[in-house]
Amino acid sequence: MNTSGMAFRDHAGSMDLCAAALQFASDTLRHGGHFVCKFYQGAEDRAFEKKLKTLFARVLREKPESSRSDSKEAFFVALKRKGDVQLRS
């Protein structure tokens, strides 16, 4: 995804990519596995974080020190996939 400089569009695109990556991870990732995705902060990221918390034992929201302070760029780091939970669309 190329960023456009339009915050809403960049956020929506990054959330779509994170959702697709999570679907793939849900289908392939083993119990105890980890998941990382880059996103641009916005209205939908809290709901995505909540979904991650149902699937993983620990979920972190990280902003690299190298990222500019005014950048909306961040990462979800989800650790230790729970074995007894499946992703619901």
UniProtKB/TrEMBL annotation:
Keyword Transferase in record: yes
An annotated Gene Ontology molecular function: rRNA (uridine-2'-O-)-methyltransferase activity
Ribosomal RNA methyltransferase FtsJ domain mapped to chain residues: 2-81
A Pfam family recorded for this sequence: FtsJ
Keywords assigned by UniProt, alphabetized: Methyltransferase, rRNA processing, S-adenosyl-L-methionine, Transferase
InterPro entries attached to this UniProt entry: RNA_methyltr_RlmE (IPR050082), RNA_MeTrfase_FtsJ_dom (IPR002877), SAM-dependent_MTases_sf (IPR029063)
Gene Ontology CC: mitochondrion
Family recorded in the similarity comment: Belongs to the class I-like SAM-binding methyltransferase superfamily. RNA methyltransferase RlmE family.
The name this protein goes by in its record: rRNA methyltransferase 2, mitochondrial
Lineage: Eukaryota, Fungi, Dikarya, Ascomycota, Pezizomycotina
